[in-house]
Amino acid sequence: MTGLIDMPWWGYVIYALVATHITIAAVTIYLHRHQAHRALDLHWLPSHFFRFWLWFTTGMVTKEWTAIHRKHHAKCETAEDPHSPQVLGIRKVLWQGTELYRKESHSQETLERYGHGTPDDWMERNVYTRHSVFGVVLLMVFNFALFGFIGVTIWAVQMVWIPFFAAGVINGIGHYWGYRTFQPEDASRNIVPWGILIGGEELHNNHHAYASSARLSNRWYEFDIGWLYIRVLAMLGLAQIKKVAPEIRFDRAKTRVDLATLQAVITHRYQVITAYAQSLRHTCASELHGLKGRVVGVDRATLKRWLHLDATALPASERERRDALKSHSKVLETIYTMRDELAAVWQRSTASKEQLVRQLEDWCLRAEASGIAGLQDFSRRLRCYA
To answer: Shortest CA distance to 331 belongs to which of 373, 295, 360?
Structure first.
């Protein structure tokens, strides 16, 4: 049975791709960046369009999605994280992400604690939330009327698109496989550097490093199509960008640590740790090569991982191995000890700004007196943060 519109096979494919892409755009722009993180403000027109479209194509409730996502950030990679593959396993999150979402959406504690500030107007209370299933039923009728039985097939694709890509791929693979530009305390990964298929959400590590940024791309080779759409909306006066990830600025004339240096180091702490690891990786590899035969069970990948992670984030067995390795090498002891001391600059909340400035200046002096070339170069560069 055919519907009102008859098209060649590729026409149906284009329709399905366009419709699902609009849904992805609604999730990343409206639910994620606007509602959950307040990285931008949306004009009522696109805001309500996205809200209607999500009800029509997914049945998702704004308050539920926002609350669950905020809890994910607050409890990331812990037993309370609604969908961590590090805790629950990659298979469960990838293939059962929708079930995990549905389970958490029934928690009134989650909704009350993390769902504040979401829409609470007449449409939300009486249509979008109360009759959340009606939207997707209406979509099936709409597709069938337009295209006949092939429209029902397109509807089925639309029904699995968000559950698989958002609940499965982003929440699962985005915390399991990919590259890390920054080193936040969680296991987030950038799946690929070109955020097109999932609206820019492929750049998940960038997002966890700067959660309140409306732009998810940070490197010249990264592309965030969601950011492109936001820029277009802003040019049309339909969006106001509130925050983007800050860029590191350098003052090459600086020779001492000051308050601006401290503030820049704290703001860019994930980039600082990444730069530290990159500066010292060759030194660590060379030192490990010299210890060959004396130290068992440690390879270059392990050394690199230890450079990126705080000692407190390591399992007890790994902390013991790291301590044992430090006892074999004065160079590695210095590198890992100073890595922990550098991280303590932004982890100590009781110290005053003046105390932290002095602490960071002392750290730089000791780094430059260490005799380790990579550490000395890193310290000199750190002083130039402005």
So the answer is: 373
Q: At 288, phi and psi to the nearest 5?
A: -65, -40
pLDDT by residue (tens digit) across 205-251? 999 999 999 999 999 999 999 999 999 999 999 999 999 998 888 98
Residue 289 burial by Cβ neighbours in a 10 Å radius (0-12, 13-18, 19+)? exposed
Contact 310, 185 (CB under 8 A): yes
- Give the C-alpha separation, 382 to 180, whole Å: 21
Closest CA to 100 of 115, 86, 85, 82: 82
Q: Residue 145 corresponds to which tokens in the numbers above? A: 């009327």
Give one word for 249, left, alpha or beta, with left for phi > 0 and alpha for psi -120 to 50.
beta
* Phi, psi values for residue 276, rounded to 5°: -60, -45
pLDDT tops 80 at residue 1:
no
Location of structure tokens 């939207």: 135
What are the φ/ψ torsions at residue 307 (nearest 5 degrees)?
-70, -30
Instruction: With a cut of 80, say whether residue 298 has pLDDT above it.
Output: no
Name the percent of the chain lying above pLDDT 90: 76
Residue 77's H or E segment, with its range, is none
Residue 42 DSSP symbol: E
Closest CA to 278 of 313, 314, 303, 311: 303
Q: Which residues contact 265 (CB under 8 A, 6 or more apart)?
A: 272, 345, 346, 360, 382, 385
- Tokens 């609940």 belong to which residue? 167
| Contact between residue 190 and residue 180 where contact means Cβ atoms under 8 Å apart | yes
